[in-house]
Amino acid sequence: MSGSALRPTFRLPIAPHRVGAMVLRHWYLLTSSWPRLLELVYWPALQLITWGFSQAYISQNAGFFARAGGTFIGAVMLWDILFRGQLGFSMSFLEEMWSRNIGNLMMSPLTVAEFVVSLMAMSVIRLLIGVIPMTLLAIAFFGFNLYDLGLALVAFFCNLIFTSWSVGLLASGLVLRNGLGAEGLAWTLMFGVLPLTCVYYPVTVLPWWLQVVAWCLPPTYVFEGMRALLGEHVFRADLMVQALAINVALLAVAAVAFAALLRSARINGSLVQTGE
Prior knowledge:
The protein has helices at about 5, 15-30, 35-60, 60-65, 70-100, 100-105, 110-140, 150-180, 185-190, 210-215, 220-230, 235-270. The protein is mostly helical. It has one domain.
């Protein structure tokens, strides 16, 4: 037996070529999906813009917050209604995607309209489960009772949930067409409009050209209405009617987009290929 055969061999506990192969695999996955690339830039830019405007507003209006201390708490809670409503819709849809059940549902007697309505119902159920405890905590810790808003709360809630359904429909359609590689949109799409809906500051804080965009979004009217109610004790019914009108148009556009994306998914076979 030769000496080389008796010589002990040294092996690294981690094989660099296998590590490199896995890195390359995920690199290809990342660069082949524009939603994943967008998400990398999305959060840092969003945080900067949102809190930058908030800081500008707080520094200019310290006296207002002294008079209406519940404004920020109310904004956080109404934003959570908007976000949780959309997330509840999208999560119910994603459950079907994760279980690879979409194809089965589309081949069943269940109609698309019935499927969408069931997602809307589940979004309200999920929302109430999450929001009701939050309202009780707000009373216990901060003395802020959201239910004191009365009938205004109903108007706020309806407009916010209608917007959340529109965004949920659009996000679900994009996931249907592009597969689970676009799943991140279901979690992040609503945050894209956060700076423009003026959750924590009025529309006047935005540059004039962004104010035009902000007034095209229904939640902007809700948060402006909330500030008027808490700060000036005035219920702006006109803002709620305008938000409702935009919501009707937005829901119609989202429904058409969802139907078109579903049709495209059927043609391209995406319904039975729900991977990435």
